[in-house]
Every structure is written in structure tokens, then in C-alpha cells.
Design a protein that fits this description.
The protein contains 1 helix and 8 strands; from the N terminus they run E-E-E-E-H-E-E-E-E. It has 143 residues and is mainly beta. The chain has a single domain (4-134), classed as Quinone Oxidoreductase, Chain A, domain 1.
Length: 143
Amino acid sequence: MAHYLNFEVSRFYNHKAPNTMEKTLNRQYFLASRPVGEPSTENIHCRDVPMTDLAPGEVRMRNLYISLDPAIRGWMGDDPNYIEPITIGDAVRCSVIGRVVESASDDFAPGDVAMTMGGRDISEFVRHPAMPFQPLPSVRLTS
């Protein structure tokens, strides 16, 4: 069973790159090393990466909830699995629920609530083609 964790977006909102006012940063959690046994803070580190402009058909969603399900542990290893392992240095994948903040897609507008299953990363924002996002029009979020 998946457990959703509130991403505490207020802690990460509006990071600015040092010495610039133009570049907004995205807080991202990445795989620093493969865990042996239970994952720890030694295996997952945090970094701020610049956000890039959207391409046509893409959306930027602020992740409000991330799923911490057991599959993530399997993706952290390098054993054969139903999905490719997370590469060392890549963002940790998960399922997310969030709010669209910017859209270059006809399918989503800023303010829409959506979710995506797997393949997204544990970060404050996710930028991706709109196709894998599932709209959640009846969901009301407080964040």
C-alpha cells in the first residue's frame, strides 16, 4: 500500500539561484548510493537544480504529495526489476499529486490538480509532457 507524504512546499517555495533573480531552483532528492538493507540519508541526498522553460505540450506541476511505496526501494537497487533501476545521481522516482503551475499543453491549465503514477521524481516541481498526468478535477487540496 502506498503512503502519501505532504511535501511541505512552504519550505521550498521560490528558491532563487545565488547571484541571480531570474533562475528559480527546484529542490530535488537524488540517489547518491545504492542502499544495502534499509535506505538512509547516506543514500538519498538533496540538491537545488535550475528549472528550464517548458516545451510545447509540457506542464510544470508543483508536487504537493509524494507516494512513498515499497516499489521505490526495489528501484534503488541494481537487481533486475519490472522497471529500470534508478541511476546513481538521478532523481528518486515516485508517484505524485500536485497542482499545475505552468502549462504549454491544451489539456491542463494553471491551478488544475493532477496525479501521475511512477516515473516522476521526488522534487518540489516536475516538468514533463502532459500525457502521463491524470486530471483530478473533483479533488480539493488545501495547499
